[in-house]
Design brief:
Layout: E1 2-10, H1 19-32, E2 49-52, E3 60-70, H2 76-86, E4 91-98, E5 110-118, H3 122-134, E6 139-144, E7 147-152, E8 157-162, E9 184-192, H4 200-211, E10 220-229, E11 235-236, H5 240-246
Parallel strand pairs: 3-10
Antiparallel strand pairs: 1-3, 1-4, 2-3, 5-9, 5-10, 6-7, 8-9, 10-11
Helix pairs in contact: 3-4
């Protein structure tokens, strides 16, 4: 039995695809690529695929993770190439490594997000972010399948900073090009995974609460990284230990 860990990107219009559809697409790709998958036991066997903290629908990502178990050993790079060839444009397998043990979820406790707010100047966004960081508690209302729920966003925010205009380039090459004649505030924020999970739209709602900041068009969110927090509030690559074990 071989366990492989994959990092993949969800780009462009594929960001609107639900996680359920992404999972189905991956399973079809695994079959088409002839990957020797291990299957569960029982009356309805399923391929042994484990997803880790999938990004919400409507959100792009450069750092999604999934584990697969195989009955025969394969070369990780060969698997990456084979899968990338059969997956639709917008779902890109970036890296495949062999598991060095442990569990992947225990290596992930926070996400780095990039929020692009078209029509909002960096100066306006900087003032709103300062108000957010100065607050001890920022409660926002979220609509769930069980009704409305109040979530305190502030404790989950590890850091937040506004990029300079020179750095304000789209984080997603597959996304529609934005109007460069309009101002665009770029917020980089690290958010700790809590219960309930604080999502990018919750951070935007918090900016509205503390500074009445409402972008004229929907903001675009991209998850740039996931991992454990280091002493400086940065993220440790969850595949670093597996990569080191291969050397």
């Amino acid at each position: 039995m071989q366990k492989l860990r994959l990092r993949y990107a969800k780009r462009g219009r594929l960001r609107f695809t639900s996680h359920r559809d992404i999972a189905r697409t991956f399973e079809r790709a695994l079959r088409r690529a002839g990957v020797p998958m291990a299957y569960s036991q029982g009356f309805s066997p399923h391929p042994k695929v484990s997803w880790v903290g999938a990004a919400p629908t409507g959100v792009a990502s450069e750092a999604e993770y999934v584990e697969v178990q195989l009955v025969d050993r394969v070369d990780p790079e060969a698997l990456r190439t084979a899968l990338d060839a059969v997956l639709p444009p917008g779902i890109d397998v970036l890296e495949v490594v062999e598991s060095a043990g442990g569990t992947l979820p225990e290596r992930i406790e926070a996400s780095a997000w990039r929020l692009e707010l078209d029509g909002v100047s960096p100066e306006e966004l900087t003032e709103a972010v300062a108000a957010l960081l100065a607050a001890d508690s920022v409660e926002v209302e979220r609509l769930t399948k069980d009704g409305k729920k109040i979530v305190d966003v502030r404790p989950a925010i590890v850091s937040a900073q506004v990029e300079t205009p020179a750095e304000a380039q789209s984080s997603d090459a597959g996304h529609d090009a934005r109007d460069l004649s309009q101002p665009c505030g770029i917020l980089m924020t690290v958010v700790r995974q809590t219960t309930p999970t604080v999502r990018p739209d919750d951070v935007l709602s918090a900016l509205r609460v503390v500074a009445d900041l409402v972008p004229p068009v929907p903001a675009k969110a991209t998850r740039m990284a996931q991992g454990r927090l280091d002493d400086e509030g940065g993220l440790v690559d969850p595949l670093a230990l597996d990569r080191a074990a291969e050397v």
